[in-house]
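Progress narrative, Year 2. Work on CRISPR-associated exonuclease Cas4 from Siphonobacter curvatus advanced from sequence curation to structure prediction during this period.
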Amino acid sequence: MTITGTYIKYYKVCFRKLWLFHHKIEMEHNSELVAEGSFIGEKSYPQRAERYREMLIDGSKIDFYDPYNKVVHEIKKSDKLEHSHVAQVQFYLYLLWKNGVKGATGLIEYPKLRQTQTVTLAEEDISQVENWVSEIERIVESEQCPGRIAKSRCRSCSYFEFCYAEEE
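Result:
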């Protein structure tokens, strides 16, 4: 099984979303919020494509990687789910570390907020990331879809209608 940055991000947000995504039930293509996030990611730094590289590593695609300074750049629409963004970038740093790139760092950029956050991968983070991967494998291999989480946290999720259709 190939665990990608998307799996890590979903794991940190909602086990149900993770399980549905793994089982090819994808709702992002219907979400205006996801489309807005993609637009921001594509249009925020037009000069970036010339300087940085897209990188495919162990099945995960890193959109912008600066190989000279060893920096992973991740663009996000808002800092609302910041913990999942940090985990996603730590996972990319872990993949780089596993493939011999030591000392890489990450930079999460929030263009609309004009903020950035630096992400590192400390020694203790490596075992944490490995635990996330093991837990993700356990969740997605389960026969049962995990239950819904608190509805108030789900309103902006692309899976909201799927999870709560009978209640609306």
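The chain has one domain: 5-44+52-164. The first helix runs from residue 5 to 13.
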